[in-house]
Amino acid sequence: MTTLAAQQTRTLVQAAVQACEDKKGEDTRILELDPIDAGLSDFFLVTSASNDRQAVAIADEIEHRLKKEFGVYPNSVEGRQKGDWILLDYVDFVVHVFLAERRAFYDIERLRKSARPLTPAEFEAELKTALAEKTRAARSRTAAKAKPAAVKTAAEPKPRKIAKKTAAKKATATRASTRKVPAKKTARKKP
Q1: By the 8 A CB rule, do 108 and 29 touch?
Q2: Is the N or C terminus of the chain more exposed, i.e. has fewer CB atoms within 10 Å?
């Protein structure tokens, strides 16, 4: 995955985490999957709800927020009718909204031992660090491009003087062509 796509995925996951927190999701965890599992997905977002109505509300909020803010729709949605385990598949990340007892029974965190578990705060700190590095790199590239351009323009003649000289020549030519100059009569001397 390219770094730009990775940062976009991280931004989407962060927005989904915020939606979970806004709807009072409990024990929200992000599992960064091992590159071996990357064929499946890059991240799992796992959160718990105290009842099936809250689980559906969390899933709805995630779906609504990602659609509204980023124009992203889930590839598939499973389990919305029962509400005990709702899965939103966004291809690069998968959201699991569980009832607390279902989460304990299936224990996805244990099934994905190779995944690196992150709290939302740790995930946000990593995202901010990555964005800050990208900003610094872009600024250093811009500064590197600006320095040679300044040296290059100093060696070239100033365009203002050329423009002034050209304008003065045109004005003189125009005046000369519009002014009627009487023809000089030359008298020939007779020998």
Answers
A1: no
A2: C
